[in-house]
Amino acid sequence: MAGSQWELPPELCCRPMAFVALTGLDVVYNAVHRAIWDAFCANRRADRVPISFKVLPGDHEYPKCRTKRTSYEWYIPKGILKTGWMNKHLNLVPALVVLFYELDWDDPQWKEKQSECATKVEIVRTSLQGRNTKVAVVLIQKKTPLPPGKHLYSNSLCTCVLRSVSSISLSLFVTGSSTNGVVHFIIKLENAFYEHAQTYYYTEIRRVKSHKEFLNKTTHQLLFVRHQFKIAFFSELKQDTQNALKYYRTAYSLVHELRAHETNMLEIKTMAGFINYKICRLCFQHNTPLDAIAQFRKHIDLCKKKIGSAELAFEHAAWMSKQFQSFGELFDEAIKLGLTAIQTQNPGFYYQQAACYSQDRKTLAQQLCQAGASYPSPEPGDTQSGGLDFYGQRPWRQGHQSIDPPDAEKEKTGIVALQIKERDVPHSELIIALLSNAVAQFKKYKCPRMKSHLMVQMGEEYYHAKDYTKALKLLDYVMCDYRTERWWGLLTAIVSTALRCAYLMASVRDYMIYCMELLGRASTLKEEQKLRIEKNLIKVLKNEVPEAEPECDPASVTAARALWNDRMALAGSNEFTIEVQDYIPFIQCKAKFQSPSFHVDQPIQLQVFLRADCPHPVSFNKLSVSLSNQEYNQWCVVESVGQESMSLLPGKTKCYNFSFVAKTEDVGKKIEMTGIELMLGSDGGGRCVFVGWRGAGGDAASTHEALLASRSSRRCGRAVEARQELDWDSLSIQPSTMIISRVPKISVQLSHQPPALNNEMYCISLTIQSQEGGVARDVKLTAGLKPGQDANLGQTTHVTLDCSKVCDDTAPALLPDVPLGDLNPGQQLERCVYVKCVSTGPRVFLFHVAYSIDTSVEGRQIVCKCHKDETVTIETVVPFEVSVKFVSTKFEPLERVAVDIPFLLMTDILSSSPWPLLLASSSLQLLTMTTNTAQLQSQLQEVVLQTDECASECFCLRCPPLTNSSTTVATGQYLISWRRKSSGADSPLIQTAVALPHVILESVPLYIHADLPSFGRVRESLSVRYHIENRTALVQEVEMAVEPSDAFMFSGLKQVRLRILPGSEQQMLYNYYPLMAGYQTLPQLNISLPRCLTTNTHTLRRFLPQRIFVKPQGRQLDDASIAAA
Amino acid sequence: MAVCIAVIAKENYPLYIRSVPTQNELKFHYTVHTSLDVVEEKISAVGKSLGDQRELYLGLLYPTEDYKVYGYVTNSKVKFVIVVDSSNTSLRDNEIRSMFRKLHNSFTDVMCNPFHNPGDTIQSKAFDGIVSGMMVQTASYT
Prior knowledge:
The complex is a heterodimer of chains A (1125) and B (142).
Chain A: H1 10-13, E1 18-23, H2 31-41, E2 51-55, H3 85-92, E3 96-102, H4 110-127, E4 134-141, H5 151-165, E5 169-174, H6 179-210, H7 221-237, H8 241-257, H9 265-285, H10 289-303, H11 313-336, H12 347-368, H13 408-423, H14 427-444, H15 448-464, H16 468-485, H17 488-505, H18 508-519, H19 527-541, H20 554-569, E6 575-579, E7 587-593, E8 597-599, E9 603-612, E10 618-627, E11 637-639, E12 646-648, E13 653-661, E14 670-681, E15 688-694, H21 702-716, E16 736-740, E17 746-751, E18 756-757, E19 761-770, E20 776-785, H22 791-796, E21 797-800, E22 814-823, E23 828-837, E24 841-857, E25 860-877, E26 880-887, E27 896-898, E28 903-911, E29 917-926, E30 930-931, E31 943-945, E32 950-958, E33 968-969, E34 972-980, E35 990-995, E36 999-1002, E37 1006-1011, E38 1015-1017, E39 1022-1030, E40 1036-1042, E41 1048-1051, E42 1055-1060, E43 1065-1074, E44 1078-1081, E45 1085-1088, H23 1097-1101, E46 1107-1111, H24 1119-1124
Parallel strand pairs in A: 1-2, 1-3, 3-4, 4-5, 6-15, 8-16, 18-25, 27-36, 38-46
Antiparallel strand pairs in A: 7-9, 9-13, 10-11, 10-12, 10-14, 14-15, 14-16, 17-19, 19-23, 20-22, 20-24, 21-23, 24-25, 26-28, 28-32, 29-31, 29-34, 30-32, 33-36, 34-35, 37-39, 39-43, 40-42, 40-45, 41-43, 44-46
Helix pairs in contact in A: 6-7, 7-8, 8-9, 9-10, 9-11, 10-11, 11-12, 12-14, 14-15, 15-16, 16-17, 17-18, 18-19
Chain B: E1 2-8, E2 14-19, H1 25-49, E3 57-63, E4 67-73, E5 79-85, H2 93-112, H3 125-134, H4 138-141
Antiparallel strand pairs in B: 1-2, 1-5, 3-4, 4-5
């Protein structure tokens, strides 16, 4: 790959690990050795020590160690870092060589083997002459370990071997144990190796550090960098990353202290890049990402301006790109290991910047690498060794550190060679790869717009790389984002690129779409551009080859012409359907039904508005609207007649009207526009393009425009009507219409007398009058409670047409479809509907009159169904309120009713009806009580109650002695039959039953009542007879005394004590002689029952009359004069 | 001084965008457009915590290699974006703030114009003048 010159060397990017060589293992043929090797290299997780192992043959030649320099006085360094150095210490020079040797303690040939082992050690030693590498010996033993008692023996044997090989360490390795044991043993071994390796690297660091004192600042500047780098690298091998970071940082500042000139600029930048990479890597490893970012920024700021040779400026861009890319990769890697990035600081930015520099590189390369120069020979890039000795040097002048190039001619050819090489670099490929990396990152960090922007760049890059299909795919994908965000400038730029792609691919369909969009109102192109594009579009419609887009590569244009010519020749696929709803095309379309609903007897009218935004008039041949019911489509087509095609003038709105008659089956249905199609071009000869809008037109931008228009007209009240031209933006779309039934020409009138009274048969009289011109047939009435109200209302409302009797609960709440026959023009029809409302409250009643009629619309005969609805809300109220009370015969309120003693029941009927009520009759239905008097007829018969009037009734009742002992008893019901006064005499009476309250019973042991006249007269004797009844089953002893009174003289027993037998009665007769006139209190009768203490005078006294009216002693007048008074 | 000044509607489409004419105008459009990602994120982050006590100035949105992009959001979610050349290190945060304040005042004046339709692009000489005063004077460059 051509970009590989800029790739970081793998030995730089890897994690340095101590290198340990294993010798004496035959991993191919020896199974035991194989198992050992596998245990070393398999399963190297993070918990194992970081060592890289390598199996080498026993006689492996390690790199020769050069003789140590004793003085640096005359030494002039040729470069900063040798290209082989890192690899040498990672993979070639081991920190420790381990010799594996099979030797059991009881080996019969112990002596021989021992010396063989020593020889092998010696071979390794010689090969490592001059290095600090240690050698270790591991004995592989097949026998199980010695019994514990023989430790001493084994120890001595150990030392014996040790002495003979004079190696630094010796380990026992037993293969007899299980695999698990092997791994355990291996881990122990490698920990020991690791310690040795660390010591080795420590001494290496010391060795490099010791050079420092020989160096001087003038000639050995390069060595300062080299040594710091080496120390840092060894520290890394030693796994001392903190110190490594420190030394790398020193190295970094030293590299920038170097004298930089054009010839060594590349070398300095290369090394700075390497060291920067290491620093950033370690910072991320230490989980200090901010340090890494800061270092990288510093690095970029320092190096940005170090362009070097102007003729090779693309190299700098390539290098910068690589810096950003590798930092992005490091960042990304750190994120994978758990670092969290944020929206404004994520690897995407670095990839993006890398792509940006790659783009710079491409432009620079295009400027600098002129075609035509022939590749110089001999190849200036060749070196003797086939590669470079030092990082970042020019192959034709390796090792030269002078300011001027040693050979100007060679320098020139070298540069030309590099330029020619650069020409072949697939820049676009590199850029696209970086961009797609960046896209992936920005997607992750919620940057949709950045993502779109990068995708545009990718698309453009594909366009430059002549991969038009991919370019179109990407551009098309992001276009809609910019369209919905309404960034017209950006959209136009993108569509213009897409148009070029479509042209170069000769993709007719895409070409037309993009032309249409670029001609549209969202395009920010200049007028002359639009003119050109429209001309091209017209050419394409005529099946001609369009003019090439400007800014296209001339070679590609020629190829495209050929493609277009092929397309032209290709007959057949010359019909295109282009859905423009999601674009912003050059023809705008809005359609509307004139009204959101049409009566079935009206023609349905719809309008299609078209407007062209392009600079030239557009002509078209056909406009058609498709509707949800396809049968209507035939009425909504307009086609050009003959050669005359219809045309749209730029900026002018044109309106096309369509009208059709709906089918009667569609009443109640919605008709929707499903699409509008405009045919451009003609099917004869040229191409024929159907521009289609879904629904009722509009495009990606129209919704927002309509919103703005509505805002502005609302605010300023712009006089839209005053202008001749229709205001396009405020034209609203009406994509659907309802077909509703014909307007009925009948009148439905209701007459009634609200409110309704509870339980009454409320009469609503309905008058239907036809104003139709023809006969209304099949008139049907649906009357009753309007559906959709409280469910309980349905239970408590009953509707009937029968007024002869009170309807029962089986009557429905809604009477459906009562046939009323036909209705001639002008005829009137009356019906009464009776409603019984069992509960109070408001109700909505519906009266629905439906009929059908023949009519004609635009010459077509249709049968229309019409209906007229009337609703009325009727309140139901209680007609009257009934209150009931129990009183004693003295009209005193009773709490309890005494058994077998008469009392009174008083009822009050208070009318709350606004209308007069006629009470037909009333009656009592008694349960336990009996009437005391014979009731012949209701006292309320035929009474008319006005509002707020009250009707009362009184009944004398008596409660017979009860068999059971319950103290409360039900009284019974009070029945009232009534009707409205205004209702006809034959209308049914309504029975209202009022439950009478329960009474509490008490039994009295003694009942006393008096017979006395209704009045007395002064100085005329009046006799009073007291009846005392014993109501108990016992003989009662009664004490009676009459208290003296000022108003009366009296004769009779003043004080008496008597006995009354069970069930019998005693009479006491007194003659009272009134002395004063007026209401006089009768002499008090004190009665007490010595045996029954609960009953005293007071309880008994309530039965007795208290007072009597005494008339004055009049003059003796004859009866006639009294009668006259 | 700014190299690009933009006013973005609540619905994220440009109401006004002007950049230094010497450079690629399209690039600035893209820069402003992509900066809306950060603006949106910042607004939504603030909206969750304190609804009314939001600071209008959003600060540095994101640094690119060549430019610094600053943002400001009015209470009606109209965004102002100012792009400044990265090399211009003399510009302090306070100055940017005052630029935004000036811009906001001028924008308010535009909105107060009874003949201006909110939602339309800004075509006001006064506003142009304010913006020009804040832009890098191109005449000195050429």
